[in-house]
Specification:
Largest sheet: 7 strands, mixed
Number of domains: 3
CATH superfamily of the largest domain: HAD superfamily/HAD-like
Structural class: alpha/beta
Radius of gyration: 27 Å
CATH architecture of the largest domain: 3-Layer(aba) Sandwich
Strand order of the largest sheet: 12-11-10-9-13-14-15
Number of helices: 16
CATH topology of the largest domain: Rossmann fold
């Protein structure tokens, strides 16, 4: 009888040009239907799997030709018959939600992978695929400048409470040199279009108001207020007004001096180069000052800058700002406004920040990332990066080194 037959073929051995073409050509000659195909290559070692549908009349000839071709190419080959029941069960699993778990750090160890994969299994989820997003790790080099990201594609059904419990357990393994990101793999994750950044202590490794305060001789007073505000202990607007008032009389020329010596956070230039290359819109939404935001805009090409405008009279700071203060609430409003201007859904936006006044926009964005942030901010954010520089954000977006570097 000429019955339908489903066969899985696994081919493995040394990778060579033309292997996929050779094996798929045999299936094409017999009019077999490829139901699924996957290929991986690690250090020139190939694994190719093909699930195909044919008939009992043709299956013997197909397997004979595949076996002969594998022998000629010095590849190993295995066949497995798949029942319709097993195939239907596999198809039914395709309707389950897919999630992305990213492991990010200076290095990702076997223990990291073992611990995370154990959590995934304990929650009844299945790992569909694993891929490395960063370049190949050298055996020697500057460990302080290295970075590694492993992305796991995970499938399974979870309700909201189960997702929260799963994410909480995953996040408990963050730290000790590892950041873990957990995202639903939906259409929005693959179509992010806008990224909004806090500036001070996020894009730059300083608080500009502290730099100004040092020049004005009120550094200790302003720094104490800044730290308290960033920990969320006092209202941002109140603390900001108090700090700016202490700058009254400072010569405005110091703004340029500070701007020219701003310490940029690791990965800023690479991140911005790649984001622009792949078409992202970028914005600075800062509780700091417009002068420094504009400087970064000119240097790195940010599309938008919203911050606080220092009032200057007769070449000196007045201790006031012009217009409304950009606080946490205002940052969220600006994020929403920019999404409208760009014609995108909020889920297509990303927000990055380190302070308590960044939490409203981190919560509102489709992807909110706490960057080297205070514990309260990390606890309240969707995701966090604490191990490497700003270019780590690229991996949370699913970008791969081989696709983004020159």
């Amino acid at each position: 009888m000429n019955e339908p037959e489903i066969i899985q073929v696994n081919i493995f051995g040394e990778d060579k040009p033309g292997l996929t073409s050779a094996f798929s050509d045999i299936l094409a000659r017999y009019d077999a239907t490829i139901l699924d195909i996957g290929q991986a290559n690690i250090h020139q070692s190939l694994t190719l799997a093909i699930l195909f549908l044919t008939t009992t009349e043709k299956s013997g000839s197909i397997m004979k030709d595949l076996l002969l071709t594998a022998s000629e190419l010095s590849e190993q080959i295995r066949f497995k018959a798949i029942t319709e029941q097993d195939y239907d069960a596999w198809v039914s699993r395709q309707g389950k939600n897919r999630y992305i778990v990213s492991l990010l750090g200076r290095s990702v160890s076997a223990r990291h992978i073992a611990d995370v994969s154990k959590i995934i299994a304990e929650h009844g989820l299945n790992i569909d695929a694993i891929k490395r997003l960063t370049g190949r790790m050298p055996l020697s080099g500057d460990a302080g400048a290295s970075k590694a990201c492993i992305e796991l594609s995970v499938r399974g059904s979870m309700d909201e409470e189960q997702r929260k419990a799963f994410k909480k357990e995953l996040m408990s393994h963050s730290g000790f040199g590892l950041d873990i990101s957990f995202q639903k793999d939906d259409i929005y994750r693959r179509s992010r279009r806008l990224i909004c950044f806090d500036m001070d202590s996020t894009l730059i490794h300083t608080e500009c108001i502290d730099q100004l305060a040092e020049r004005a001789g009120v550094g200790d007073q302003v720094r104490a207020i800044t730290e308290s505000a960033m920990r969320g202990e006092i209202d941002f607007c109140e603390s900001f007004t108090r700090r700016v008032s202490l700058l009254k009389g400072l010569d405005a020329s110091v703004l340029d001096e500070i701007a020219r010596t701003l310490p940029f956070n690791e990965g800023l230039e690479r991140m911005m180069t790649i984001l622009k290359r792949v078409g992202y819109k970028t914005a600075i939404l800062s509780g700091g000052f417009t002068y420094f935001g504009k400087y970064l805009q000119q240097k790195f090409g940010f599309d938008y800058v919203y911050a606080n405008e220092l009032e200057i009279e007769d070449g000196r700071l007045t201790g006031r700002v012009v217009g409304d203060i950009v606080d946490g609430r205002r940052k969220a409003e600006l994020l929403r406004l920019l999404c409208q201007v760009e014609g995108i859904h909020l889920e297509q936006s990303v927000a990055v920040g380190d302070g308590a006044n960044d939490l409203p926009m981190l919560d509102l964005a489709g992807l909110g990332i706490a960057f080297h942030a205070k514990p309260k901010v990390v606890a309240g954010a969707q995701q966090a990066i604490s191990t490497i520089g700003l270019d780590g954000i690229l991996y949370f977006l699913g970008l791969k080194d081989s696709r983004i570097d020159p």
